[in-house]
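the two lines:
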Amino acid sequence: MWKLFHQFGSPPHFYRLAGYLIPWFGAAALILILIATYGGLVLAPADYLQGDGFRIIYVHVPSASMSLFAYTLMATAAGIGLIWRIKLAHAVAAAVAPIGASFTFLALATGSIWGKPMWGTWWAWDARLTSELILLFLFLGYMSLRAANDDVGKADRASGLLAVVGVVNVPIIHYSVEWWNSLHQGATIIKLGKPAITGDMLWPLLMMLAGFGFYFATVMMIRTRSQVLQRERKSQWLKSL
Amino acid sequence: MKKRYQRGIQVALVLAGVGIAVTLMLRAFDENILYFYMPQQVVAGDVPDGKRFRLGGLVIPGSIERAPGSLKVSFLVTDNQKTLSVEYEGVLPDLFRDGQGVIAHGTMDDNGIFVADEVLAKHDENYMPPEVAEALKQVHGDEES
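prediction for all of em together
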């Protein structure tokens, strides 16, 4: 177990493994997103109340889930890096931050676009929207803190602590719609009892979620590889590559 | 090994500390984080006097009255416990209709009528095609009759 942990933490091993996986993950992402786009925009019926406007769900929900997933992954990686002093873990955290920030921005932007016609407002300071905005600031804060430090080791530790501390925001975002009266509606997919969305609308959404997941993994591996190249530029295994 | 253990405890302590601090803070701010009040909270006097606040609830079907020749509209909002009368002048969101969840921003006047200057529609978490909605309605109607 520990051997596997350390082997995975070794940059050359990761570099090779990621190089092998990237094309497969990329292809899976492309196929899933294409099918889900067709399913969501063409095959799925219009909503009884929102008409075609509901279709933004196929971008909004996957990006919002990815933003939470990205933050949890970044915080976990940063925590592992802080405790076990594994440099690769910090490289993963640093690679994930801009991707997570992009997904967060996309979730906020698509939510705003949907909110204007449906709710009647672009923005409301309700618990869900505000906590998601804080998530964006956490990602941006992590990135700025990294950029402010020239020494990679120091940047890893300072920004890593911010990432770990910020993880308390993740459950707040997820449960905000249950804990407080909010303008944002409750969860549709993760819900006990009868499904809140019909099957013909649901499958493109699930497929899009999987596609976004593969896309995230692909970009994360590409970015982590470039982090590794930069961090290990003086090491022997890279020269022999 | 020992150092690693120490660092683990440090990180866990910082996280626990921040977690507790945030929990206490959110509990203290609980009232302010509530985006809206329900009619029963308003009737029970949970809302500060004379202040602007948001009122949330369902529009009672058939209660929407539009004044001819203007944008004035009045309707009843309920949470199935208490009901309040709302007056509003302006453009309503697309989703506004009988039975819709709405959030109105404004103040209570002396006659117990909520005068709103902004009305938002609150969407629920259900998505379905029109045929399914129609079928559900019929099933529901049969149960009632």
